[in-house]
Design brief:
This protein has 25 helices and 2 strands. By secondary structure, it is mainly α. A two-stranded antiparallel sheet has the order 1-2. Helix 1 (about 15-30) crosses helix 8, helix 13 (about 200-210) crosses helix 14 (about 215-220) and helix 23 (about 380-395) crosses helix 25 (about 420-430). The longest helix is centred in the N-terminal third of the chain and has 31 residues, at about 40-70. The radius of gyration is 25 Å and the shape is globular. The two termini are about 30 Å apart. About 35% of the residues are buried.
Length: about 450
């Protein structure tokens, strides 16, 4: 894994003046290409336009795959995308050697392509390129920016991000998020930025609380709205069930939001077993409880929906039943029409009317192992996996970083680290028998 950035690693702060100087240098290089022969410049720009269109498409497809499920190395399409991106990158390298301005003009015209290139090692060895690429990230959709940063292999990136926070650069809140997702953020550096007022406590202390740092936990306890930072609060509570009941009551009808209801389902509190199939969070609630008794009601409801609204239910059914479900989410709208999906579900319901006496996940008993397997499944989207991750962390009482945009090796490393802790596994599997493990 990446080295943590500490206070001792801070170099010269990268401030607004440095950004302006970098911008001036880049602008100068772009202006120089106007002096190139017109025919030659037209040829270069035509080839770059074709490359931009292809690379932009590939980057968005890569993001879609990472959102759609675990980005398994067995996915042939993902491997193909990576090969094509690597090949296209050499086109840009070649044009950069001809004249750097040909590439830097993409900063305004193609910020997605430009930011990805500047964070690749072929370009990021020049710190000015790296700074320019980072500064361009703010023009992108947050998910795309996070994908580019989290999957960047440039070892200097973490220290440059830290130096930009140190220099009070614009969008430094985003830089903190990037460092956190890359797991290169140290506790000492967080505390330093709070003391020096580079960052506000509200930005830093929730992260410290998840690491069980006393300052962060105390700050969290002082916040008045219990629904704010609810995941962080539950991670730091010894008796989370009692705390939840004290804050939100014991009747599902009195809960103010679907989000609170979902956390009640996640905590598996007996007072909140009522299921509302038409609520916005119902697919997530079903995945968390894994209750096979709900299947007839769900199938009846899904049959009334169109493909757009019904797709998330196929994903939820798959997360609960796994290969027992006679289709996968990726087949919907591709190999099977929505009408065929409805017919398959109706027929399947007749075969699985026997209810299981235990909650299910991927077709087997809900456990630490089956939950971790679900996190590694290419057919379970990020919108569901984020709740599976919270389920794991809260009941195992073991926080580990996770984000769907993390590279494959980082996700695997985090999963393996969590699975190597027998006490965490026991706590999750005995989550409904708290007294037996002493809390």
């Amino acid at each position: 894994m990446r080295q943590k950035v500490g206070v001792e690693h801070l170099a010269a702060a990268i401030d607004l003046q440095v950004l302006l100087e970098t911008d001036e240098t880049i602008t100068q290089q772009v202006s120089e290409i106007s002096e190139l022969p017109g025919d030659w410049l037209g040829f270069c720009e035509e080839k770059l336009s074709l490359a931009n269109e292809s690379l932009s498409f590939l980057l968005r497809q890569r993001e879609r795959i990472f959102h759609s499920g675990f980005p398994s190395r067995k996915l042939a399409y993902l491997s193909l995308i990576e090969e094509q991106m690597s090949s296209l990158k050499q086109v840009y390298v070649a044009f950069h050697r001809m004249h750097s301005g040909l590439i830097h003009q993409l900063r305004d015209a193609e910020p997605l392509v430009y930011s990805w290139l500047m964070l690749e090692r072929e370009f990021s060895s020049d710190v000015e390129n790296l700074i320019s690429g980072i500064a361009t990230l703010e023009r992108l959709e947050p998910s795309l920016a996070l994908m580019i940063v989290s999957q960047c292999n440039e070892h200097k990136l973490d220290r440059v991000l830290a130096d930009m926070i140190e220099g009070n650069c614009p969008t430094q809140k985003s830089f903190l998020v990037y460092l956190n997702i890359r797991q290169s953020l140290s506790v000492a550096l967080c505390k330093h930025w709070v003391r020096s007022e580079q960052l506000d406590k509200s930005e830093v202390y929730p992260l410290l609380a998840l690491s069980n740092v006393e300052d962060g936990v105390e700050w969290l306890d002082q916040q008045s709205n219990p629904e704010t930072l609810l995941f962080e609060r539950l991670m730091t509570k010894q008796d989370r069930g009692t705390w939840f009941r004290q804050q939100f009551g014991t009747e599902i009808a009195h809960l103010d939001s679907d989000n609170i209801v979902t956390y009640a389902k996640l905590l598996e509190l007996r007072e909140f077993t009522d299921f509302r199939v038409n609520s916005k969070s119902a697919p997530i609630d079903f995945v968390l409880c894994g209750d096979s008794r709900l299947l007839p009601e769900i199938i009846e409801y899904v049959c009334q929906l169109d493909e757009v609204d019904g797709e998330v239910w196929i994903q939820a059914l798959y997360a609960v039943y796994g290969s027992s479900l006679p289709l996968t989410p990726s087949e919907v709208g591709v190999d099977r029409t929505w009408e065929e999906v409805i017919d398959i579900l109706d027929e399947w319901l007749e075969d699985v009317r026997d209810q299981q006496p235990f909650p299910l996940r991927l077709g087997v008993a809900l456990s630490f192992e089956s939950t971790l397997n679900a996190m590694r499944d290419p057919d379970i989207p990020a919108s569901l996996r984020v709740w599976l991750w919270r389920h794991l962390c809260i009941h195992a009482r073991a926080y580990t970083q996770w984000n769907p945009m993390m590279p494959i090796h980082q996700q695997e490393w985090n999963f393996s680290k969590l699975a190597s802790a027998p006490s965490a596994i026991d706590r999750f599997n005995m989550r409904t028998k708290n007294a037996a493990v002493g809390y």
